[in-house]
Amino acid sequence: MNENEIEASLAGCEADMTAGRAIDVKGHRFWKAVAAVKADSSLTDRYADRIGAIDHAAFRSWALYTVPSSTGTALMVLATIAGFAIILAGYYVDEPWNGLALVVGTLVLLVSTHGLTHMTVGHLQGMEFSNWFIGTISRPQPGVKIAYATYLRTPARSRAWMHASGAIVTKLLPFLLLGAAWGMDAPAWSWWVLIILGIAQILTDVIWSTKASDWKKYQREMQYVSA
Questions:
Q1: Residue 212: its pLDDT value, please?
Q2: By percentage, how much of the chain surpasses pLDDT 90?
Q3: SS3 for 132?
Q4: Residue 36 pLDDT exceeds 90
Q5: Residue 87, C-beta contacts closer than 8 angstroms, at least 6 positions apart
Q6: Which of 9-18, 159-168, 198-207 has the lowest mean pLDDT?
Q7: Which of the chain's termini has less CB crowding within 10 Å, N or C?
Q8: Which of helix, strand or coil describes residue 143?
Q9: How far is the CA of 195 from the CAs of 4, 57, 173, 181, 198, in angstroms?
């Protein structure tokens, strides 16, 4: 896609925004324009802010529920503290309650730390985030929305590892918490739950995430590093 085509794509999306219509990102070939800008870093400063505005407007139209970044981050930090507190409580109760505390705390941490890891790694690379959101009823796990202009201004390798970071943490977490299971002398079934959770997430990444989620985005951005 050349610069004239990029201009036409963004202008079409902006016309939809001005008219109050849903942005036809597919019809205007918006993501092809984004890919062209990523492939030529000399275009970033010229188009990053426009692309960011269009991306955010499109996000507002499809996200089921959103809250500001500060609100969502506070809630996820509180959830993370709660998850660790539940696990800590397992050290002070007997079976089967210690095993139950371990499993419940782990599930809470799996939900809360995924997006927080993306955000932490992204911030360290200079990216900003605008919202936390629930995408659909069928996928209720909270997500964090990046401010796309800052994303485009970040090197491709850093973008790639930001995407990978959340996936890596959630895969490691159940196995790391086997140490807590040992420390509280948790029942054998809770050990198996952690192991199965870890293996299930690895399989999910291999089967699904490489095609539709974090690892797909990692692979996409690493292509620009190679280029």
A1: 76
A2: 87
A3: strand
A4: yes
A5: 101, 102, 105, 106, 109, 177, 180
A6: 198-207
A7: C
A8: strand
A9: 53, 41, 10, 11, 5
Token pair for 162: 């930001």
Rounded to an integer, the average pLDDT of 173-177 is 97
pLDDT category of residue 227 using cuts at 50, 70 and 90:
low
DSSP states of 125-185 = TT--EEEEEE--SSS-S-EEEE-HHHHHTS-HHHHHHHHHHHHHHHHHHHHHTHHHHHHTT
**Domains in the chain: boundaries:** 1-62, 64-226
DSSP characters for 53-77? HHHHHHHHHH-SEEEEHHHHHHHHH
For residue 6, give both structure tokens: 């990029």
DSSP 40: -
* Tokens (6 digits) for 184: 């509280």
Q: pTM for the complete prediction?
A: 0.91
